[in-house]
Amino acid sequence: MATEAQIKATIARYQETFSSGDKQGWLGLFVEDGTVEDPVGSVPRKGRAEIGQFWDEVHATLRGITTEVTMGPAVAGHEAALAFEARLELDNGTFILPIIDVMTFADDGRLVSMRAFVDGGSLRPAS
Amino acid sequence: MATEAQIKATIARYQETFSSGDKQGWLGLFVEDGTVEDPVGSVPRKGRAEIGQFWDEVHATLRGITTEVTMGPAVAGHEAALAFEARLELDNGTFILPIIDVMTFADDGRLVSMRAFVDGGSLRPAS
User: Does B117 reach chain A within 8 Å, measured CB to CB?
Assistant: First the structure.
């Protein structure tokens, strides 16, 4: 099983690559048949091709997106959860969107699955 | 399926009953064969007798415990996630423990399962 340090390193790199727009670095954090369910309840994207398409869709609608962790990651065995705020740059302003990610990891520390609980009702303008 | 309003009402009541020490009110929020996995990775408690035992164990080690939600709940279908801080009153002081709960709900809004990602590494004295 991956160590807590390995899992935390993957999550740190996940946040870094996502916020810096490093699509290939971000995709490389997943196992080949990894899944992304964002938001929870949507059809999961499976494999790097579909996950890459998800990345493209997110970035096509935004001028920019960065994230800031507000709680965690709390690692438990091969799973982890973290709370963060996504900062969304839109044509009409900048908004903060609270999100909780729940993730599972392979023995080598790569991501097997990511599920995003998006608190859309708490979307607010950035102060 | 339970509505978002039903799920949010259950979570609000969950936090209220837990913080006020209302064991029976808290237990009543679960379906008969509900499960609690707290922390994630421990053997899940199943059914109200085992969940009640979990409550007793938590409260036996503490002078008091209250919770304050810091993010969410983010509701998605029959699932929800929230981040909160547990305030633990111990013999040697008061401590803040960050936790992320992931929950599933029955059609009537009652809790089917609760899993707690406990960020033990971020335990800190209350300021």
Answer: yes
Q: Hey, are the CB atoms on A71 and B100 less than 8 Å from each other?
A: yes
Q: CB B71 to CB A41 under 8 A? A: no
Q: pLDDT, tens digit, for every residue of B24-68?
A: 999 999 999 999 999 999 999 999 999 999 999 999 989 999 999
Tokens of B49: 């007798």
CA angle B68, B97, A106 (to 5 degrees): 115
Chain B residues with CB-CB distance to A72 below 8 A: 83, 98, 100, 117, 119, 122
Please give the ipTM for the structure prediction: 0.95
Residue type, B83: A
A119 to chain B nearest CA, in Å?
A: 4
Judged by a CB distance cut-off of 8 A, whether residue A5 touches chain B is: no
Tell me the residue type at B12.
Answer: A
Residues B74/A100, Cβ–Cβ less than 8 Å = yes
What is chain A's pLDDT, residue by residue, as a tens digit (127 residues)? 999 999 999 999 999 999 999 999 999 999 999 999 999 999 999 999 999 999 999 999 899 999 999 999 999 999 999 999 999 999 999 999 999 999 999 999 999 999 999 999 999 999 8
